[in-house]
TrEMBL record:
Function of the molecule: Initiates the restart of stalled replication forks, which reloads the replicative helicase on sites other than the origin of replication. Recognizes and binds to abandoned replication forks and remodels them to uncover a helicase loading site. Promotes assembly of the primosome at these replication forks.
Any one GO biological process: double-strand break repair
Identification of the protein by name: Replication restart protein PriA
Cofactor note: Binds 2 zinc ions per subunit.
Organism annotation: Ruminococcus albus SY3
PANTHER family: PRIMOSOMAL PROTEIN N
EC number(s) from the headed UniProt entry: 5.6.2.4
Cellular component terms (Gene Ontology): primosome complex
Alphabetic keyword roster: ATP-binding, DNA replication, DNA-binding, Helicase, Hydrolase, Isomerase, Metal-binding, Nucleotide-binding, Primosome, Zinc
Gene3D superfamilies tied to this protein: P-loop containing nucleotide triphosphate hydrolases, PriA, 3(prime) DNA-binding domain
Binding site for Zn(2+) 1: 517, 520, 557, 560
Amino acids binding Zn(2+) 2: 526, 529, 544, 547
GO function term, MF aspect, one: ATP binding
Catalytic activities: Couples ATP hydrolysis with the unwinding of duplex DNA by translocating in the 3'-5' direction; ATP + H2O = ADP + phosphate + H(+)
Amino acid sequence: MGDRETVAYVALSHAAYSFDGEYSYLVPERYRQVLKAGMRVLVSFGRGNNRVIGLVTRLGYDDDNKHKLKPVISVIDKESLVTDEMMKIIFWLKENTFCTYYDAFKSAVPTGFSYKVDMHFALVNTYIDRESLSTEEAEIVGFLESCDDAAEVDKYFDLKANPQRKKPLDTLIDKGFVEEVPSFKRKVGDDSVKMAVLNDGYEDADLTPKQKKVVELLEESGSASVKELCYMTGCTSTIIKRLCEKEVLRVYEQEVLRNAVGELGDRESPEDIVLNDEQKMAYNGIMSLIRAGKPAGALLYGVTGSGKTSVFIRVIDSVVKMGKTAIMLVPEISLTPQMLARFKVLFGENIALLHSSLSLGQRMDEFKRIKRGEARIIIGTRSAVFAPAENIGVIIMDEEGEQSYKSDSNPRYHARDVAIQRCGHNGALLLMASATPSLETFYHAQKGRFHLFTLAHRYSDAALPKVEIIDMQTESAEGNDSLISRKLADKLTETLKRDEQAILLLNRRGFTTYVSCASCRQPVVCPKCNIPLTYHKKNDRFMCHYCGYTMDNLAVCPSCGSDKLRSSGVGTQRVEDELARIYPDARILRMDADTTSSRYAYEEKFKAFENHEYDIMLGTQMIAKGLNFPNVTLVGVISLDKALFTGDFRSYERTFSLLTQVAGRSGRGSKPGSAYIQTFVPDHYVLNLAAEQNYDEFYAEEIALRQSLIYPPCCDICVIGFSAVMESRAIAAADHVTAFIAEYLRKNKADFPLRAIGPAPCTLEVINGRFRYRLILKSKNTRCFRQMIAAVLKDFGDNKDFKEVRIYADINGDIGL
Ligand code: ADP
Ligand code: ZN
Ligand code: ZN
């Protein structure tokens, strides 16, 4: 038996970054047949010999040392949850996003039923030398031999009630006479309808240990049904209610589906879609890359309405017919009900869905269907890039420039980077698509690193909408104080008269952006974040969108006591009121995060709008992209100026994309469309290029700017962020790290180019009572550079002086907030 692997390398679930690693454990004889990399095991760790769950990253031989190693206590999984390829991705995530192995593992595997672990004990079927046992140990062995009632055994080993049994029990386990048998409770059925998700800024609320458990589970899973939450954390629904009141999370109703894909309607065949010449050219080019079976990247750059989806469908169909699998990523599942419905009709049960508004049970089931090869088309949001599919032919990223593809919490990966890795392992094609690609992707397409396919015309050959910019300064100078310019108002009247529909966009939810005092000029701010609060008309309260703090409406200014409080800024509710006043007969649909907390709310409302049950759809960013309503001929942008000036180097790119995309919602059918952009900065070149829908020119301007200021794609950028309750601690930590880096560079004689900016306060200096500082590093993202960042984080994690300071490192993410 000497040739069987005897040592398991285990990454621990509770490891902090500074001591994360692969720890060696001895594989006991009885597990040598079954244990594989990618299974979870129970091991003991540290001085207290605490039981911890770990992931087996590799198996190996270490015959010299094996007698010194602690044994694997038990094996949790019956089969490996991680394919060999995904194990490589876990290692890649660890190196590239500075997370622990286990964090990487958790993002690759859905939070399953394994959350609640109960420990049971049983005799190992082996010869026990009684002479070697102490009295206490012998007593335990005797008990186990005589008792075969599981509940009795559990009661006997309730170590809280019988603490004296812990020590002899541990010894017996170490000697290999007793084994720990964990049981992992399976979730309850999926009949629950109440779903919970975390609110923004939940991180810093004061929580009881039980509440913390709930929050941790939600952090891992994104959302879960209330029933599952209670079940897996052992909490009562009262605790969920408390968390709801604290605004840590919110609960919404969700319709129950038997499977995630939902009911199937009449089937159609993908082959019935006839591509036009442009689409055919793109399709042929894409397929020849896929057939070549080598890792490759391609950009499908197609104007809005050019029919990129039709190309995806034909590509996916062909890939599946080749016997391969396809992953299609979308930025946000709730924005793609139309696309999903189409895919269901075309591909039926071959589709698996992976996204965060599924219940945990559904996610687990979809994961298994993919792993077994039962579903070979995977559609989902960012984390679906980790789908356990094998033999991948293509990974499609629709609207590849969208922010939601970058995770801004641990692990801080970009789906594109992970997709590139997976395509590398599978000899697959990464197909990115957009009318407004990210600067990075277009740059690489220009340089020839990605293949470029262009769809220059709308499918229906309709013209792109005419876009006009309206100067709101002039409006107000000429006496129009309304939120809606005279021109846009006239156009709305005409559109409604023709029985056509309109989409109006603005970039804020809430009734007004903020309330300020006309006497002392102070805005009403959040006491925890110092950011202006947003007034919400529906409940007549102020809310902080960063930390969830809420406060009653005020009669007088909290700073000076004056009663001259006035509101400024625009929110969807206020525009809705104004529209209702101007067009009393129009049916108005308001779409924002306040009216649509669940996926099904979106679907229903979009459906109703499509059926012309509404005339005007008013909403935030969420309605700007991806939707296809042929009867919409007017798009109005009420206000978007703020988006231009967020302080992030991508704010122009994002504003340009948003405006181009929302304009592109107009005139997609047979009738010509138009769009109007209201602004206080009518001469701004980004707005004007967006009005022309001139991406090429915008790209030229923007890439020149990035080159001169040195920003991605001309370099990589790493933000090291710090936060602490005491400002002085955050500053001290940032200074410490800055000094550490200087020293590191000197010691290692590092000669890579590096520029540091800061440390300086973040744009939002305080969120939820924590002061925030950041250090920005511009460099090239090489292995040497990453080693340095890893060293920074290790040193920091080991440093007891900064226990209360939080740190993170993020490569090529946002620097805006
Ligand atoms: P994009 O995603 O590029 O903005 P869509 O994929 O939504 O565009 O297509 C725009 C419209 O053109 C849709 O109504 C779609 O049904 C139609 N369309 C595109 N390609 C075809 C095709 N090959 N056959 C029939 N209709 C098509
Ligand atoms: Zn005042
Ligand atoms: Zn706040």
